[in-house]
Predict the structure.
Amino acid sequence: MQKNSRNSQLELLRIISIILIIFHHAMIYTNWSEHSTYPLNEYLVQFLIIGGKVGSNLFVILSAWFLYDKSFKWSRVTKVWLPVIMYTVSIPFILSSIGLEKIDLDSLIEMFFPVLTFRYWYVTNYVMLLFFIPFLNILICHLSKKEFQKLLLLCCLFFSIAPSLFGFDFGNDIIWFIFLFLITSYFKKYKNDIPNIFSLIKMTFFAVFFNLSSIVVLDYLKDIDNQIQVSSTILSKQESYLLLVVSVSLFLIFVQLPHFSNRIINYISSTVFGIYLIHDNKYIRSIIWEDLFKLNQYFDQRNLIVHILLTVSIIFISGVIIETFRRIIQIGFTKMARKGKMYFDNFTWFEK
């Protein structure tokens, strides 16, 4: 095994994260009817919504693990920005060329400035986090262990527990990303405080159990009392304390798994960001969920789960293939740019 080989157990978790996100998008972007003649399907749809927030949390946590104690580099911003702009520009132009979309001035601004216009909520907040990380690392460096624990406790109280129990909203996405970075950094700095795998599995199980149970209970209460307006998935929001426990516990489980390196897992993991950019592009969403995969037409059938699994698999595999072609194109343009630079560097404008 090579000395600098990537930890495939964490890359595998990255793959699992994008699959959970695709399941989530399949549920929230499909126009489901209010009730199904097969009631278990109603629970299935609500249960699968949970995965998306766990997946996005894991994306941040995975990045934070490797960015703790690191200085700021523009190359990290460029690495994110380049595939984003390639997709935000190419997809609308392709759809416009075949008459499926019209491009106006607002669309052009979004296409060429996707990060600034919040084209992808995750990307914009992640890029902001990259700028905050050097300052957060300075803060972490100067905090004692007790002070760090108190800070995490306060953040957990205001940004997770209070919103989960009382619906208070003390922050926004970037605040949540910073909180996740701080949690991850704590365990990276104080690895001896990481609970054992068995304890983490128990925490994950109970958090998932209580989350799913809350959905079932709230659905039942709403059926017998129409006045209850609370969403059944109220504990499935990103800042939910239960989902926070699931996200952090899952990550810490994978961190403690035996290290191994697998080229296939590592390659597929490297395409995960592209898969997200492709299937969550606003010009693609309606095509995927309303035109291609009409999952709502199976809502009253027992085999709904089969259609969901098939849809998610097709989107995942297609995303890997498309992202592979995009990377080939990017490599080609990079080589051309380097050759052009070399040509102009060596070009003699005036003979001596």
